[in-house]
């Protein structure tokens, strides 16, 4: 069982009329970003990631999103580089590079290989398509997102594993010389994870590649259904997935008592889902982004704004409580899911630094050891 601290690096200071007039993605004007405050915030967030490794987490996660207040990491490899010299142990997971959004995915191959060499082989490289809103932000046709993803993935894997130079001729990417220096430290390449909300195509593709499959932002019932689907896909391919091929990312808030935890967590959880993830449905799922099958699986669920705090808690979107309650819930859920990777979102929305530090400490000291002892 492995535990990772997942950080979004949100921008918590939204305009007073946000609820009435704004979404958090694509067209929230960057005049609301204060670079001086951002300087302090970035360094605070990096401190929190570094502290998680000191506390004994197996690794930390950074990720990629564009033009939004939800997460200030348009370039996760830069964040990983900032961490790479300060962290002398623990994994740094890029969860993930949105390779479909890149016009030059060979740069991803180069940057991740550099990070892997600098860290002596402590990089995990997750690949994502990027959510629908980012195709608006980057002026890309979402209809081609899966084609671009598959082609970019194949280019990166070949760049890491085949001696160069060689030509790459695809529909979306063409290179006369593929010959990246350096090559990755890990052989044949850094581990690859596939985070997803559970589209049918991604489940089948990840199972075929034997890549760990990480579920995000779903109810516990949905997480279980998608993981069962992944297991079934693996079994159709003739193998049983290891528990560490199945992962779950979940917001977690701990306090000394159940009452205190719920009282404090409510505003942060609702900020995440009602503000940080606030966007029109056509931003989240633009035409062409989902196939008909995946529209049925993913695109028909309620908008986040329709859920109450009590819904998120009851349906298992989040884990909130005192350490005993959270570890008991987590043990039960992980046993039920058969998952061996847990990505804990322990800085949520408007949480202060001291709240985040306390959350990290309680989780690292009172939850992780108890859950690992049952392995």
The whole-number mean of residue pLDDT values reads 95
Q: Treating each run of at least 4 consecutive H or I residues as one helix, how many helices?
A: 14
Which architecture would the CATH scheme give at its second level? Alpha-Beta Barrel
Instruction: Give the tally of β-strands.
Output: 11
Largest sheet: 8 strands, parallel, barrel
* Helix/sheet category: alpha/beta
Strand residue content: 15-25%
Strand arrangement, major sheet: 1-2-3-4-7-8-9-11
Listing every helix as H and every strand as E from the N terminus to the C terminus, the arrangement reads EHHEHEHEHHEEEHEHEHHHHEHEH
CATH class, named: Alpha Beta
Distance between the termini: 7 Å
Radius of gyration (CA) equals 20 Å
CATH homologous superfamily, by name? Luciferase-like domain
Helix content: 40-55%
CATH domain fold name: TIM Barrel
């Amino acid at each position: 069982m492995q535990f990772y601290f997942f950080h979004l690096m949100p921008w918590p200071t939204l305009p007073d009329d946000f609820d009435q007039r704004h979404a958090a993605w694509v067209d929230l004007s960057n005049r609301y970003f204060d670079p001086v405050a951002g300087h302090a915030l970035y360094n605070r967030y990096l401190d929190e990631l570094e502290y998680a490794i000191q506390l004994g987490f197996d690794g930390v996660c950074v990720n990629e999103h564009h033009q939004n207040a939800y997460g200030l990491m348009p370039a996760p490899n830069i964040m990983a580089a900032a961490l790479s010299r300060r962290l002398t142990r623990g994994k740094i997971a890029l969860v993930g590079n949105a390779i479909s959004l890149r016009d030059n995915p060979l740069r991803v191959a180069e940057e991740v290989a550099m990070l892997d060499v600098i860290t002596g082989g402590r990089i995990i490289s997750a690949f994502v398509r990027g959510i629908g809103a980012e195709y608006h932000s980057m002026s890309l046709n979402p209809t081609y997102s899966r084609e671009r993803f598959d082609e970019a993935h194949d280019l990166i894997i070949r760049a890491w594993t085949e001696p160069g130079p060689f030509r790459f001729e695809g529909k979306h990417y063409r290179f006369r010389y593929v010959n990246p220096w350096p090559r990755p430290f890990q052989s044949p390449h850094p581990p690859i994870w596939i985070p997803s909300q559970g589209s049918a195509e991604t489940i089948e593709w990840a199972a075929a590649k034997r890549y760990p499959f990480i579920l995000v932002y779903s109810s516990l019932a949905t997480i279980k259904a998608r993981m069962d689907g992944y297991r079934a896909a693996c079994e159709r391919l003739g193998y049983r997935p290891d528990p560490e091929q199945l992962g779950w990312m979940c917001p977690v808030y701990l306090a000394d008592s159940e009452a205190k935890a719920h009282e404090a967590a409510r505003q942060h959880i609702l900020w995440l889902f009602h503000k940080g993830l606030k966007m029109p449905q056509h931003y989240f799922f633009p035409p062409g982004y989902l196939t008909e099958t995946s529209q049925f699986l993913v695109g028909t669920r309620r908008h986040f704004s329709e859920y109450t705090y009590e819904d998120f808690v009851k349906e298992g979107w989040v884990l909130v409580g005192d350490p005993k309650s959270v570890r008991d819930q987590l043990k039960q859920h992980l046993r039920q899911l058969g998952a061996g990777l847990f990505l804990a979102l322990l800085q949520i929305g408007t949480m202060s630094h001291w709240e985040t530090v306390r959350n990290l400490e309680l989780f690292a000291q009172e939850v992780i050891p108890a859950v690992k002892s049952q392995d």
